[in-house]
Amino acid sequence: MKIWAKLQTGEKLQASKIFECNKKLNYNNFVEFMREICYSYDIPTPMILKCQFMHFVNFHNVKFVENDFIESINFDFMQIEQ
User: Fold this and answer.
1) pLDDT for res 17
2) pTM above 0.85, yes or no
3) For 50-62, how does the pLDDT look when each residue is reduced to its tens digit (9 = 90+)?
């Protein structure tokens, strides 16, 4: 499965990468994969709720905003798409 992770501020795209995951999609693998994505961007990992994971499973995208991060971030949101 390929996942497109992008960081945006307003309408401006700050960073964009495509990641490949070969593991079966479940909540634990999704959390682990999100850690790898955030590590590659050198940003904090957001709190990932089951409802966000289910949104990703059902709609193939999820958006993480400032309130989802414990630490401060220098972008408006991070969007993950499949």
Assistant:
1) 93
2) yes
3) 999 999 999 999 9
Kindly report the three-state secondary structure assignment for every residue of 20-75.
Answer: ECCCCCCHHHHHHHHHHHHHHHCCCCCCCCHHHHHHHHHHCEEEEEHHHCCCCCCC
Whether the Cβ atoms of residue 78 and residue 64 lie closer than 8 Å to each other: yes
Taking residues 23-41, report their average pLDDT.
92
- Say which residues have a Cβ less than 8 Å from residue 32's Cβ, sequence separation at least 6: none
Q: How far apart are CA 82 and CA 79, in angstroms?
A: 10
Task: Give the whole-angstrom CA distance, residue 7 versus residue 51.
Answer: 21
